[in-house]
Amino acid sequence: MALYVPLILAVLAIIIFISKVTLSEKKHAQVVEELKSKLAQGKIEDGNLPAANLKSTAIYAPADGKLMTMSEVIDENGKTFPGKGFAIDPSSGQIFATFDGKIKFTFGTKHAFEIVTENGLQVIVHVGLGTVNLRGEGFESYYDDGQIVKKGELLLESDRDLALKNGYKDTIVIFYTQPGRVEKMSKISAGKVVEHGQKVVEVKFK
């Protein structure tokens, strides 16, 4: 008894710990995904939108790969990715700055960050679908939040093989966190192969 009782209690403690950690990780991933959806749908944007004097900015490819429209982006739950923007089916794991701007914040899971243009357009670069569950594993960033960056500057590297091995997609999605401000976007050439730094779309916004 002196041997088996402590052993049984230790095993029970390990089982309880593992189950709590698993639940915690699932909850964390769920919260992050909910935040992503709210940002993409403009549910967190400032209700006091600027006056309707339109500004324009170009967005450049953050990675090498094939262009996709948002309607082609299906997440791990079989749902279309929400919001306005475009996506890239990448051919490498390097992610570069989409324009001159400032890094506003990074998700704790490292798979997404927001970058703001010099004239105020807010964009999130979201690397992979379902990759929130990796909890930052396989991502290496080369910037700090609040840093000013230049178009074409290397910001992030992702392990595409790790994502694919775990059953996730490596699709890179670029979407606007204040879609209500976006008045017009030039047409995305779906299927076109681009290199990072190549112009993808012109956006007019208020």
UniProtKB/TrEMBL annotation:
One GO CC term, this protein: cytoplasm
Swiss-Prot/TrEMBL keywords: Kinase, Phosphotransferase system, Sugar transport, Transferase, Transport
Gene Ontology BP terms: phosphoenolpyruvate-dependent sugar phosphotransferase system
Compartments it resides in: Cytoplasm
Domain PTS EIIA type-1: 71-178
GO function term, MF aspect, one: kinase activity
Name of protein: PTS EIIA type-1 domain-containing protein
